[in-house]
Amino acid sequence: MCTSLSYNDLNSTHFLARTMDFAFELEASPVFLPRNYKWTTYIDKLEQANKFAIMGAGSNEIGGVQLANYMVADAFNEKGLAVAELYFSNEANYDKESSAHKLNLVSEELIMWILGNNASIKELVDSLNQVAVIDSNQGVMKSNQPLHWIISDRTGQTVVIESRDGSLRLEDNPVGVLTNSPDLSWHLKNLSEYPDIQTKPFDDKVYGDWTAKASSMGAGSKGLPGGYLSSQRFIRTVFSKQYMATAVNTEEAINNILHILDNVTKPKDIVLNENDEVDYTQYQGISNLDELAYYFVPYGNRKVYRVKMTTDLIEKSSNTIDFGEMISNSQEYTELN
User: Fold this and answer.
1) For residue 204, what pLDDT is reported?
2) Is 316 a catalytic residue?
3) What region holds the Choloylglycine hydrolase/NAAA C-terminal domain (predicted)?
């Protein structure tokens, strides 16, 4: 279970952010994949070479097992296109059979193909019919992964890709928020159930000779869902994004986004799956699409790590860089005396 949102500041700097909530340890850290990064599809074993450099959260090892390719869960490319994949249980409906006329991918590979080959959402709209996501157990997790994807670019547009009846559907996301199942259209309709939530206390209400007054500050948010269901996290995130003052610069934007993510971040041991495994927020990640920077906050350390896709990295580097060894998962402090 995860939460993602797009965000723009007053300088028209664009961001795509997410919490990574999962019970299986993904061991993700900030990574850089250069232009021409080569990877091999799991189904047809076809080698691919990325056109664009990519930066985000990923790994080439899961559960002590070395992967054939780096896998990324949220990232951006050198053109400022960003994608995050989120769990979509009981809803994802992929192709059952491979296509002879398309590039066949397992769901975990779609984000790599999108960022490696598309400069914008406009390009993605035109190229998405070149690929098929297949219901397959050949991927990283050795089981079919039900996913949907939120995508944003430097124009400020945000869309989602969801699979229905075996095909990939790209649709506009008017609120710039995505969580998990049900599908986006259900979550948008569900917003209509919360028309009275507001930032200010309700006005006084007169009942006969009695005037009822709001009991305290925050009374206007009575009814705001407080749990960790995807529907509840969706409502809370839309509410926070709607009413927080828009950031004036990048620093304030990062701070605002982290506060929004904190409102849906899951501590350890609060949510368990059916096998009593802890489903928790393993990290928070933010992609800055205009400055080409990635911000990473691991679970065990509330320090914000920042890595930038510099011009030198884009133009000169041919090496994959994993920044994981520079990340501490033990809480750090700034001593004041």
Assistant:
1) 86
2) no
3) 2-318
